Amino acid sequence: MSIQRAAVLGSGSWGTAFAKVLADAGTPSVTVWSRRPELAAAIRDEHHNPDYLPAMWLPDAVTATSDAFEAIDGADLVVLAVPSQTLRANLAAWNGAIGADATLVSLMKGIELDTLKRMSEVIVEVADVEPDRVAVVTGPNLAPEIAAEQIAGTVVACRDIGRAELVQRAISTRYLRPYTNDDVVGCELGGAVKNAIALAYGMASALGFGDNTKATLITRGLAETARLGAALGANPMTFAGLAGLGDLIATCSSPLSRNRSFGERLGRGETLEQAQAATRQTAEGVKSCLSIRDLAHSVGVEMPITEQVEQVCHEGVDPLKALAALMARETKPERPGVPSSTGQ
Ligand SMILES: NC(=O)C1=CN([C@@H]2O[C@H](COP(=O)(O)OP(=O)(O)OC[C@H]3O[C@@H](n4cnc5c(N)ncnc54)[C@H](O)[C@@H]3O)[C@@H](O)[C@H]2O)C=CC1
Ligand SMILES: O=C(CO)COP(=O)(O)O
Fold first, then answer.
1. I need a surface site. Which of 31, 62, 200, 271 has the fewest CB within 10 A?
2. How far is the CA of 72 from the centre of ligand 2 (A)?
3. 37, 131 Cβ separation under 8 angstroms
4. Would strands 62-65 and 29-33 be described as parallel, antiparallel, or unpaired?
5. Splitting the chain (344 residues) into consecutive groups of 10 residues, what average pLDDT does each group show?
6. Residue 141 Cβ contacting ligand 1 at under 6 Å
7. What angle do CA 278, 141, 248 make, to 5 degrees?
8. Which amino acid residue places its CA nearest to atom 5 of ligand 2?
9. Strands, DSSP E only, in the chain?
């Protein structure tokens, strides 16, 4: 079995690059939905997305429309690629259009404000589908690099491994190597939390801190991600994989990352409003740091870096003071609760 017709809902950087991946992997028909008719027309008629990926040309199998129902009609794969906080409203508007057997794929890396739900949970609730029908694609996948066919790995997470393998086949190309994983919770948390950590990394970088600081933020950022994951039932090994460490390294270290760049702006002294005004694309961590912090509180988990990022973004705390607050925390073992090694 293979995917014959895919709909990609959202024509930002990743939605557009993902449409190319699907077509390059052999999907005969890929329809991108764009809110703006002029962008849909550029993708459809010129095979080009001038706003988000001006250097990329799309294969002939990719077309576009500004009518979401037209895109979804007959699709056996429905890919959701809108900003996380807009998913619920968008999906509600499309309700009833998604076919009864279609596989739904989330590309989004955020946690919903207020409900504190992961994107796959929002999809299950709003589209009223079984969790087994929802897959998550996540990993170190900066859209401009994938669009340029630079080789990378990614993860297809789904509770139904047969369905994960279906999506795996649908996106397997000579430049993208997908692995399956049944840990949907861990994969989604890895993708969402790394955005908050990348904001902290960007702040530290703009403040002139060096590689020791950056390595510490990555490592302790991963530790707090894994703590949250453990409390929510994720497999700890997921965080050592592409959806955890892999994505964290890519996002923190790349100037292409919107989250890292946003953090750099804050580190240079811009206010949230100034940074937002200068940023056209989605930096998910700016909103998700609030929901991740609340999710952590709800299960009694400490996430100090995410909390300080929230303080800088939403309480106007000076980034340097936020880093100082992290250093002033009580000292503790590196892995509390984990038995000491025996080789001493
Ligand atoms: N860009 C990347 O490299 C990657 C992005 N992602 C994730 O993919 C998701 C989508 O991100 P991108 O495509 O990068 O975003 P983007 O910022 O490039 O584009 C977002 C798209 O959503 C549209 N949009 C904005 N508000 C909307 C609304 N209310 N309703 C419907 N559409 C709306 C925009 O017009 C745009 O087409 C995010 O969760 C992001 O974290 C995941 C992996 C890589
Ligand atoms: O998720 C990404 C890479 O895997 C993209 O990160 P940004 O949203 O920070 O650009």
1. 271
2. 26
3. no
4. parallel
5. 96 98 98 98 96 95 98 98 98 93 97 98 97 98 98 98 98 98 98 98 98 98 98 98 98 98 98 94 96 98 98 98 97 84 56
6. yes
7. 80
8. 142
9. 5-9, 29-33, 48-49, 53-57, 62-65, 77-80, 103-106, 134-138, 152-157, 176-181
pTM for the complete prediction? 0.97
Q: What is the spatial distance between Cα 190 and Cα 251, in angstroms, rounded to a whole number?
A: 12
pLDDT of residue 281: 87
Contacts of range 42-46, beta carbons closer than 8 Å, 24 or more positions apart: 43/11, 43/16
User: What separation in Å is there between the alpha carbon of 119 and the centre of ligand 2?
Assistant: 16
In the prediction, which pLDDT does 340 show? Answer: 67
For ligand 2, mutation pick of 251, 253, 261, 266 (most atoms within 8 Å of CB): 251
Structure tokens at 164: 């994960």
Domains of the chain, start order: 5-182 (3.40.50.720), 185-327 (1.10.1040.10)
CA distances for 152 relative to 97, 116, 139, 236, angstroms: 33, 30, 9, 22
Per-residue pLDDT at 341: 64
